[in-house]
Amino acid sequence: MSKKEGQSLFTRMAMAVAKAAGKPATFMVAVLIVVVWAASGPIFGFGDTWQLVINTGTTIVTFLMVFLIQNTQNRDTEAMQIKLDELIHAIKEANNALLDLEELDEKELDSIRKTYLQHAAEARKASRATSP
After folding, report:
1. Binning pLDDT at 50, 70 and 90, where does residue 2 land?
2. Domain housing 89
3. What is the mean predicted confidence (pLDDT) over 30-35?
4. Could you tell me if 108 and 70 lie in one domain?
5. For residue 34, is it within any domain?
6. CA–CA separation, 32 vs 131, rounded Å?
């Protein structure tokens, strides 16, 4: 199964737009648009319509990019979580109860975090005791 076969149209589009948006050429096109817009100011007398064009354009692009960026971030986070879960699962001595931490509420996470902070403090203390 190829990488693209299982992906929805939205996912493929979001990935393509996110990849294109991060390229230097895309940034240069955006800069060029702003320069052309600024240079056209005197032609249009720096009027309200002239300002409305750039404001509307940037607002629409920003609005749409927020959703694409969030989609990309969600997908990347989910993939990273699966990879970390696999590493935890593959290590025999690992605590498999940690596999779904992202599903816990903040109070439960704080409690588990305190346990690991204690482990770290104990390890540092033991390390100092055995160091010359």
Report:
1. low
2. 9-96
3. 96
4. no
5. yes
6. 61
